[in-house]
Task: structure prediction
Amino acid sequence: MEFSAEQIAGILEGEVHGNEQIKVSGLSKIEEGQPNTLTFLSNMKYEPHIYTTNASIAIVAKSFNPTKPLPTTLTLVKVEDPYSCFAKLLEVYNQMNQKSPKIEKNAFISESATVGKDVYIGANAYIGENAVIGDNVRIYPNTYIGDNVKVGNETTIHPNVSIYHDCVIGKSCLIHAGAVIGSDGFGFAPNEKGEFQKVPQIGNVILEDFVDVGANATIDRATLGSTILRRGVKIDNLVQIAHNVEIGVNSALAAQAGVAGSTKIGQSVLIGGQVGISGHIKIADRTHIVAQSGIPGSVKKPDTVLMGSPGIPMDDFKKSHVGFRRLPSILKRLQELEEKLK
Result:
């Protein structure tokens, strides 16, 4: 589908500088711009590329004033914030590529399930007994929705996702391919023979509204009660959330992070890739944890930045790392002093 510069300016409340009727049918990075594509300039270190790009339309800030001649084929759309406006256009583009409402052949929907308006359900998807699917939901092929699951309006569930029984998915959530929500928590107790006996996991998982779950992420159901991801939580690919964990509003976890059971994570917490967090602890609001750190105990002070394993305040870690790097030379000097003393 094509959009003219005039239409784009209308969507973004921007101003056209150039040919209002020029049209684009794709998107591109400014350094790789091709004819008939739309690009944007937000970070000014990329400014040199705007003078050589082959893109047809560029979104720029209203304060942008070229210091060199622009390509004659380039039209500018000036807006207040180029980055957020380009993100808005990406969202419009993404929505246009969503599947149209339809229930495809071979999809199974239980007779006791409730399906809302304008829903897409792909081939070989399974909707269990008493499941409730909201309006404008997109469920892609080969996805399993268990008994009594609730899926809120406008949520998109990509292929090969498994959502176990009794779980609750809020409105406008996005769940990527291969994610597993509601599998058993890791609950075992040794018996008198030293063998591990499984502890039944009879709780569920609750994702509140606007939660994003990355590909192949796993969120375990609670032993009792609920594992809860609050409104606006974002978890990346291959993240593991254990049973009875609670993650606060607008927190985010990067790829391969893992959170052990019953840990409570506060609001607006940022957790880097491959971070490991122990169980039964609390992480204060707005804590930042640097990638590959290990957190064995509670973080009580908000706005703390932690690094290392075990995680310590980042400034302390940097100072310690300087000492660690000097350790070979310090040991050599120590050996030399010992020889002199002898």
Q: What stands out?
A: The longest strand covers residues 57-61. The chain has a mean pLDDT of 94. The chain has two domains: 3-96, 161-310.
